[in-house]
Amino acid sequence: MTESAVKPDKAYTNDQIYARLQKAVQEHRLTPGTRLVEERLGELAGVSRTKIREVLSRLAHEGLVTLVPNRGAFIASPSVAQARDVFVTRRMIEPNMVSMLSAKATPMQIRTLRRHSKQEQEARAKDDRPSIIRLSGEFHILIAQMVGNEILLRLMRELTSLTCLIITLYDKPNTP
After folding, report:
1. Contact 11/46 with Cβ under 8 angstroms?
2. For residue 4, what pLDDT is reported?
């Protein structure tokens, strides 16, 4: 592999690296237990290991990454109890979030939600599982954005990412 194949034309920002890692989890390209090598991530993003550590710390704070001293960073593997907690929390929050939006949704917001739903339907028609899961999560985040509550938005982003890990771990035939 040539140096130009590894190094991007410009360095990514921490937010861009964070978003790319989050999307990779949502699309199941990074699965629970995957080791995240700081040097390699730094090469791919065109940044120092220090910047990568900052992003990994942020992801660890949100529960998406597990930092193990002297071993490195790994994509988290939520337990069954944690999975239950995530879904209980979502059931508590999401109906209220939808009620809040329905009380004040603009015609433009409704069009945006319909467009997004159509993209998800198209992904389902193609049986594109990574896109289905990503788009489903984005739909819930979109609702939180439209509600306009920053804390709710941050929480939904975290819950959505954790849900993707949970689906990867537990949504298999013959798994209760």
Report:
1. yes
2. 38
